[in-house]
Amino acid sequence: MRPLSAFLLTVLLVGICLLQVAAGSHCTPNSWCSDRNGTCYRKGESSCNGSSFSYGCEDKHCACCVSDPTVCIEKHFCLKRNGTCIPEEEDCPGEELLDGCLGEGCKCCVEYPLNITVECEATDICEEHNGTCFEKGKATCNGTSYNKGCKGMLCACCIPDTSICIAKPFCEHEGGVCVKKSAGCEGQVLSDGCHGVDCQCCVEDDHDHEDD
Q: What is the rounded CA–CA span in Å between residue 55 and residue 33?
């Protein structure tokens, strides 16, 4: 009976480990998400029918989804500048930042500005696509905005050519590439995985596939 007992103990330990791994893969909301009645989902595996923001969940591969379109949510650069999102009809006693909020009819208001020096430097990928750096909140982009395209806090790269598809970090993490939707995808499509118009993140079934 001893070998059988040892086998059962091994099976039990393996089961516990699997449960721990499964529990660890769940997306857990933090106070930012919970206070807005949001729920967390894993990027690429699900989509959000509402406003989605990354800093609302404990796992960096997750995002918080708030289905109520009237809830105002600060974008990351709005928070970094000590801003708060308020309804557009309310008066702002300070500086208003451009495009600093998620949600309908919201604006980012900075009542007490921080003394921040912003220096933007274009990366290779920004320059390759003829992009220029701009300071988020101070200017808008008439094209494709790419946050990782410029070095420097509160900077982003504006690429005038909207036909270009650029992968978001979680798309790259999953081994995906961004292509036009018209090109199709022989594999799994990860939701909202790309910057650009009519682009999709495609993770091919065969990760070892190489172009001829």
A: 8
